[in-house]
Design goal:
The protein has 207 residues and is α/β, with parallel strands linked by helices. It is built from seven helices and seven strands; from the N terminus they run βααββαβαβαβαβα.
């Protein structure tokens, strides 16, 4: 079992030393003590901090996603290929319908929460864009930092071209809406400046 000084444990968990000291005083997370009365943390404290116990098995989650109800049949295709790879031994099989650009998918967010609390050992997906169309490298880094492996089969046939077209259309619509909103903002700003100038001119003429 690994042991850590309070400085090492703070760096490992991302919490400040003062926070760990306070938790010790409050009895929230009490470390061991060395003969010289210095705080000493172990892997057990790390697991406790991440909300799991030593006996609890970290899960393997198999995640499948399509963008729309029209592509729901592709979930079965994904599952077929993933079952061949996982031999149906995934602890949890998650199916979700939602765009790859949508980071507010409930099941996706639940998986991310489990990653950050150390509950997941592995995530298995048919293709990396099943998790997210963009930002996969960031998700990979976050998972690695929390001891979770992301296994990608890279089965291109399971990433429908029409879905990519939909995502590209979503990006175009998003930026078009922002551009339209910016144009409206500029018109409103010009009108406000014009009205203010007119009011000032009226005030000066009255004087």
């Amino acid at each position: 079992m690994n042991t850590y000084t309070i400085a090492q444990f703070a760096k490992l968990t991302g919490y400040a030393v003062k926070t760990l000291q306070k938790w010790d005083r409050d009895g929230k997370l009490s470390p061991n003590r060395t003969p010289t009365n210095r705080r000493l943390y172990t892997d057990e404290h790390l697991r406790l901090l991440r909300g799991i116990t030593i006996e609890e098995k970290r899960k393997t989650v198999v995640y499948m996603r399509v963008s729309s109800q029209a592509q729901k049949s592709d979930l079965k295709n994904q599952r077929t290929v993933l079952e061949q790879f996982c031999a149906a031994k995934g602890d949890e099989w998650v199916e979700e319908i939602g765009g790859g650009l949508n980071f507010k998918r409930p099941k996706f967010l639940a998986i991310i929460s489990d990653v950050t609390t150390g509950k997941l050992e592995r995530i298995v997906v048919a293709h990396k864009d099943r998790l997210a169309r963009f930002g996969f490298d960031l998700l990979l880094h976050m998972a690695k930092e929390n001891g979770c492996e992301i296994v990608v089969l890279n089965t291109e046939s399971l990433s429908p071209e029409q879905e990519m077209v939909q995502d590209l259309m979503t990006i175009t619509h998003c930026f078009s809406a922002r551009l339209y909103g910016l144009q409206n903002y500029r018109k409103a700003l010009k009108k406000a400046v014009k009205d203010d100038t007119r009011a000032q001119d009226q005030t000066e003429s009255d004087n």
